[in-house]
Write a structure and sequence with these properties.
The structure holds 2 protein chains of 2 kinds. By secondary structure, chain A is mostly helical. Chain A is built from 13 helices and 4 strands. Chain A has helices at residues 9-34, 55-61, 64-95, 102-114, 117-128, 134-141, 156-182, 185-193, 198-209, 211-227, 230-235, 255-264, 268-295; strands spanning 37-39, 49-51, 241-244, 247-250. Chain A has a two-stranded antiparallel ribbon. In chain A, strands 3-4 form a two-stranded antiparallel ribbon. The longest helix of chain A has 32 residues, at 64-95. By secondary structure, chain B is mainly alpha-helical. Chain B has one domain (51-270): MetI-like (MetI-like fold, Orthogonal Bundle). In chain B, 74% of the residues lie in helices and 0% in strands. Chain B is built from 14 helices and no strands. The longest helix of chain B is centred in the N-terminal third of the chain and has 32 residues, at 63-94. The two termini of chain B are 43 Å apart. Classes of the chains: A mainly alpha, B mainly alpha. At the A-B interface, helix 1, helix 3, helix 4, helix 5 and helix 6 of A face helix 1, helix 3, helix 4, helix 5 and helix 8 of B.
């Protein structure tokens, strides 16, 4: 037995650790620091920082536009996550067999997942365009008149969610496909012998066996929804605008957009505070959904 | 007979789904081949198909330059990150040292944090360093690729320790073991990490939008964002620019599919 303990290990880690420390570790604490400060001179934002205690957080608690943006992000997640899981499961089940073209289909479904969200958003915006976009025109030809999908309060969020689900469903498909391939055949054989019909096999074998993947999809989906930015920046810019009480709010103005607007106007302290509240919300929701999915299906 | 009907139904639905999923890209390419000003027509075969949109986007609207910028950022970024990840992964997978576990745990904890979290402080740091409008700003903050390192650690752990021990008995030092044994044996996963990092940089739109304010430093998606706000109505050009942006990743994926799929599956299932 040769000893593997070696101080040289640090030499291999140090380069990685330095960049980690400067650009991931330190920023975390720097963001915390910023969140307790306020920029007093936007022409010298990084030096004109004033300590303001919890002021940013207190302001945030009362900021209707902020909570609305969180709500819109969660709504986005609430549509895309179940929809993605549903579509991915169907695709995986259709592909879970051996025929010659499986690979080709798999490639086609998966490719859009790798493409840039913003660019795909631009393409979808073009498809959705009103009244001359192809979707509106085709539907019109068969006698269906639709409102401008991205500009109507009722359809804007749903339209973005559908576009992004179609872009991203290849990811879930791939995971579920691998999951299906890992379920032992003997489970189904035993169930068949016991006379369990296919739908029972689905609910008592397939879905429970795929639960870890579903959990993964939910957790990454929540983190993704709370970070969502480029699809809304590209497709709606946060609109359309509606009035809720005395507030004027954007129907698709998600947290990512709200953060970006604050960063753009160099409200660094406030933007940092938004980041932290987002982080806390993401952690809480992930923990809760992990618990829920673990207890029962 | 029943099986054939079943197979037909499955093919049928798969094909319908595939057309729906790929339709945006098909329509993008069709539109990009139409003469300028006819982007909103429903003709499926452009008459006559023209490459003039690509030409004017690449030269007149400087997407050639943006493309080169994207390429530089993604290649150097991926190369740097892969080297750093591979070295660190070797230490975590094959060496023992004090604080190994807490250190690894600390690195991995970042994966739980939404990426948006880091944008504000990273921007502040890059700004103070005077890096706005440089390649450095786009590349260096993303050099520590935690996910890539995790993938490599998992992979290197499957290399038998006996091999490492035998090399050590023969007098090989850590550096030799790393370069001559571990790196060659991990080639496939190293390629995966390189490709995933390349794809990450190619699509790193929000960050590039923030740090590139000078036209000469735009990457393809940033250029597209600016082009769009200036020329919303030039659909054929917009679609040509989108196609240019999508092309490299599509080509890489088609030729190196198994690396992408391998990496993503391993990351999700073990993680």
């Amino acid at each position: 037995m040769v000893s593997r303990t070696s101080w040289q290990a640090y030499l291999f880690i140090i380069p990685f650790a330095i960049f980690f420390a400067v650009f991931l570790g330190y920023p975390f604490f720097y963001a915390l620091y910023l969140s307790f400060h306020k920029v007093t001179d936007i022409y010298d934002a990084f030096n004109a920082l004033k300590f303001v205690h919890l002021h940013n957080y207190i302001k945030l608690m009362k900021d209707v536009e902020f909570w609305w943006s969180i709500l819109m992000s969660l709504l986005y997640g609430a549509i895309t996550i179940p929809l993605s899981i549903f579509v991915s499961l169907i695709l995986a089940n259709l592909l879970h067999r051996t025929f010659s073209l499986v690979k080709l289909y798999r490639t086609g479904f998966f490719l859009p997942y790798l493409l840039d969200v913003f660019v795909v958003a631009i393409v979808w915006k073009f498809l959705y365009a009103h009244p001359y976009g192809i979707i509106t025109q085709l539907l019109q030809r068969i006698g269906i008149n639709i409102p401008p999908l991205l500009a109507s309060p009722k359809t804007a969020m749903l339209s973005v969610a559908i576009a992004m689900t179609l872009k991203g469903c290849g990811f879930g498909m791939l995971l579920y496909l691998a999951g299906l391939q890992n379920i032992p055949r003997s489970l189904y054989e035993a169930a068949s012998i016991d006379g369990a019909p296919p739908w029972k096999q689905l609910f008592y074998i397939t879905l429970p066996m795929l639960k870890p993947i579903t959990l993964f999809m939910v957790v990454t989906g929540i983190i993704g929804a709370l970070s969502a930015f480029a699809e809304f920046y590209g497709m709606t810019g946060g609109g359309p605008i509606i009035r809720v009480g005395s507030h004027i709010l954007g129907c698709t103005k998600v947290a990512g957009l709200y953060l970006f607007r604050n960063l753009e106007s160099l409200k660094l302290g406030y933007a940092a505070a938004i980041s932290f509240v987002l982080l806390i919300i993401a952690l809480i929701i992930s923990a809760v959904s992990a618990k829920l999915l673990r207890v029962e299906w | 007979m029943v099986n054939k009907v079943k197979a037909f139904i499955i093919y049928f639905w798969l094909t319908v789904f595939l057309i729906v999923v790929l339709f945006p890209f098909i329509w993008m390419i069709i539109t990009s081949l139409k003469p300028i000003g006819t982007g909103l027509t429903l003709t499926i075969i452009p008459r006559p198909p023209t490459l003039s949109n690509y030409k004017s986007v690449l030269t007149q609207y400087k997407f050639g330059r943006y493309f080169v910028n994207s390429l530089i950022v993604a290649s150097i970024g991926a190369l740097g990150a892969t080297v750093l990840c591979t070295m660190a992964a070797f230490a975590f997978a094959k060496l023992e040292f004090p604080f190994k576990r807490p250190l690894f745990g600390m690195f991995l904890s970042v994966l739980m944090v939404p990426g948006l979290m880091f944008v504000v402080p990273q921007f502040a740091i890059v700004y103070r360093l005077g890096w706005i409008n440089t390649y450095k700003a786009m590349i260096i903050p993303h050099l520590a690729n935690v996910f890539g390192m995790f993938l490599l650690v998992q992979y290197m752990k499957t290399i038998p320790d006996e091999l490492v021990d035998a090399a050590r008995v023969d007098g090989a030092n850590n550096w030799t073991i790393f370069l001559k044994l571990i790196v060659p044996l991990s080639g496939a996963m190293i390629a995966t990490v390189f490709l995933l990092t390349f794809q990450f940089h190619w699509n790193n739109f929000l960050w590039q939008l923030i740090v590139a304010t000078d036209e000469h430093m735009y990457t393809v998606p940033v250029g597209l964002a600016m082009f769009r706000s200036a020329h919303e109505e030039l659909h054929t050009l917009k679609m040509a620019a989108s196609a240019i942006s999508i092309l490299p990743i599509t080509m890489i994926f088609i030729f190196a599919q198994r690396y992408f799929i391998e990496g993503i599956l391993r990351g999700a299932i073990k993680g």
